[in-house]
Amino acid sequence: MLRRCYLGLSINAARLQAVALRRQGKGVQLQGARAFDLKPGALVPSLREANLKDPGALTEALGEVLAPLAGREDRLAVSLPDQAGRVMLVEMETPFKTKQEGLEILRWQLKKSLPSELNDICLDFQVLSRSETGRRRVVASLMERAVLDQYQDVVERAGYHAVLVDFHAFNLYNYYRTRVDMGEDFVFIGIEGKVLNVEIFQGRSLVFHRVRDIAENAEQVFQELNRTLVGFQGGLQALRRSAAYLHTDWETREVLRDVLTSLFEKEPQLLSPHLERLLPAAADKSKLPEASIVDAVGAGERLLWGTA
Prior knowledge:
- By secondary structure, this protein is α/β, with parallel strands linked by helices.
- The chain has helices at 55-70, 99-110, 145-157, 168-177, 218-230, 236-239, 253-264, 294-305, and strands at residues 6-11, 15-24, 27-37, 75-80, 86-92, 121-130, 136-144, 161-167, 186-192, 195-202, 205-213, 243-248, 269-270.
- The protein folds into 3 domains: 5-83 and 145-173 and 274-305, Nucleotidyltransferase, domain 5 (2-Layer Sandwich), CATH 3.30.420; 84-144, Dna Ligase, domain 1, CATH 3.30.1490.300; 181-270, Nucleotidyltransferase, domain 5 (2-Layer Sandwich), CATH 3.30.420.40.
- A hairpin with a 5-residue loop joins strand 6 (121-130) and strand 7 (136-144).
- The mean pLDDT is 91.
- It comes from Geoalkalibacter ferrihydriticus DSM 17813.
């Protein structure tokens, strides 16, 4: 009996990364992975403007990267650039019984805080915590519909269906969430290419999220992190009591570790994805793409385990 294949696709300004996963007992097996570098300027993530400058070329690239992995499978989970949307942490005081009712309340609650130039919004949320009075704390994700439609259209034209769509930072964290016990209170930092994401968790619940474009320069990373963490409501001093974890695809991992050590006044834990452990025993580990595929795996696993 053939086991189902679960596809994860990461789309960013530099490249496409795709993986094919299968269940292996209580774990996951990486059946294959591919990457395709995009031409500079072919994809420019933006909250308001069209992201894809040549949709036809991207459709062809999607077919090239996915076809060797997919077989007959056409469902996939997509990881999009964080800059293509917005994430907000929201306190919802009005009780609701259904997801649709919650969306309507959230849309009304956010109406005054959203940019006026965003006309047609696609909105979703996940409940982080709730009180006895019915008050909920949620993480809300939103995109301009025209921007989301661009991505979904090229996926469909390539012959696939995006059944789960989320942002890079969350799929990156999702990969490590089940593999590393980070404790109750921690800071998760991701640095890939020219993008920095910071998530702060207290009591294992997300309390802060921020994404910034950066230069590939350790000094700027220090300055941006310092600005970000000083602005955190709990204060930088409180964060220094929390564990810090770093995922990066930079070759200068040790330099970044020293930067974070200076900032947190203790050494952070450098995360290693160990993707080779997901491969079949006889697989050629040298065939893994050099580009990071961690968020693609994180997206595919959400589809596999049904944690959308």
